[in-house]
Amino acid sequence: MAGNVLYDVGVRLRAAELYDEGHGRAAIAALLGMPEETVRKWLDIYRSAGIEVLAMMGKKRTAYSLETKLAAVRAVVDEGMTKPEAMAKFGIASPSSFKKWLKAYREEGPEALRPKPRGRPRGSGSPSGETTREQELERRIKRLEAENAYLKKSIALKAEKRSRTARRPRS
């Protein structure tokens, strides 16, 4: 079975509880029968954002302002703060999102963190407004020319195939 395994809230909360009792990542992973890397991510989230965020994982996405993103990224890149420290200070729950922000900032600068428009861009799809008779006829001519070229090519290919498979008289 491929893909990520989903764990319920109880398992995540139990991992935090074991951590508070003094267990390490490896011990928690062994006790819960799961990968140590998963436990590490959970504990980073628990330490940086708290038990509430750990419990809410996978339920809703938090939208962060451009200012929050920039401040968190600059704290790591310019001030030398560690990722977990920055996540805790700025209340960022998702390590994967934070890594993407860091990469984008390093490669493209602060503009890369601006929100991008979602959905299909305006103007794509069918042309809006009324088309003139001339535009309609031009579109029809292009379609018919393409259809004509397709048919000619199809006929030529069939004729070529027939000539290759036709029986030649014995001499």
UniProtKB/TrEMBL annotation:
- Describe the location of the Insertion element IS150 protein InsJ-like helix-turn-helix domain by residue ranges: 69-122
Q: Which Pfam families match?
A: HTH_23, HTH_28
* Protein name (database record): Helix-turn-helix domain-containing protein
The record's comment on protein family reads: Belongs to the IS150/IS1296 orfA family.
Looking up SUPFAM superfamilies in the UniProt record yields:
TrpR-like
Region (Disordered) spans which residues? Answer: 109-138
Q: What InterPro entries is this protein classified in?
A: InsJ-like_HTH (IPR055247), IS150/IS1296_orfA-like (IPR052057), Trp_repressor/repl_initiator (IPR010921), WH-like_DNA-bd_sf (IPR036388)
